[in-house]
Amino acid sequence: MSEWFETLPGLHDQVWQQLTHGAARRDVAARQPTLATISPDGWPEARTVVLRRAVADPAMLEVYTDTQSDKIASIAAHPRAALHFWEPALALQVRLQATVEVISGPTVADRWQELPDGALLSYGVTPPPGTTLPHALDYTKTPDQSRFCVLQLALGHIDVMHLGTYHRRASFSATDGWTGKWVSP
Ligand SMILES: Cc1cc2nc3c(=O)[nH]c(=O)nc-3n(C[C@H](O)[C@H](O)[C@H](O)COP(=O)(O)O)c2cc1C
Predict the structure, then answer these.
(1) Backbone Cα Rg of the chain
(2) Which residue range(s) make up the domain with 23?
(3) Residue 1 pLDDT > 90, yes or no?
(4) Is-contact 57 141, C-beta < 8 A?
(5) In a domain, 171, yes or no
(6) Which of 15, 53, 116, 178 has its CA 20 to 30 A from that of 5?
C-alpha cells in the first residue's frame, strides 16, 4: 500500500482534499491562500484571501472580494492569477494557476446571503481600499452588496511539492486531463 505522496493520483487527490477542506473549514492552510495577480503596469502583487469554494471537476475555485479593490483593475488588465499555500502538517506546497472571471450582481446574490454579518463589512469600505487616509482609522465600513463580487478561478495548472524524507514534485495540467507527471524538485 503506497502513501498518498508516492503516486500522482494520490498527490492530486490530496490537493483537492485540502482545497475542499479549505473552502469549508478554518483549520487548514488552504483556508487562507495567497492570491497573486499582475498589476496593470506589470508588477506582481500578492495578498492573503479566504478560499470560499472548491470544485474538482471542472477544476474551479472561488474567492470573494470588493469590486473597488485594486485587484479588480489588475484582473481586468490580466485575467490570470496564481494561488499558493503551504500546509506544514503535510509538508505540502501547492501552487495553482488559473484564468479569472469577476462575477457580481444577481448571479452571486446567493453567496452574499450566506455570509455572516461580520463578513459583509469587508465589502463596502469608504473610501475604497487603497485610498490614502489622513489618519489610520479615517474610514467607515458599511455592507454594500453592489460592492460584492466573486473571483471565479478556472484552474489550468497545479504544481505540488512534498518535502518528505525524499522530495517529490509533480505537475498537473488541465490540458492533459490532470494525469500529471513527476518533475525534478
Ligand atoms: C487573513 C486575511 C484574509 C483576507 N481575506 C480576503 C478575502 O477573502 N478577499 C479579499 O479581497 N481580501 C482579503 N484580505 C485582504 C487582502 O489581503 C488585501 O489586503 C485586500 O484585498 C486588498 O488587496 P488589493 O489592494 O491587492 O486588491 C484578507 C487579508 C487577511 C490578512
Answers:
(1) 18
(2) 4-130+146-183
(3) no
(4) no
(5) yes
(6) 53
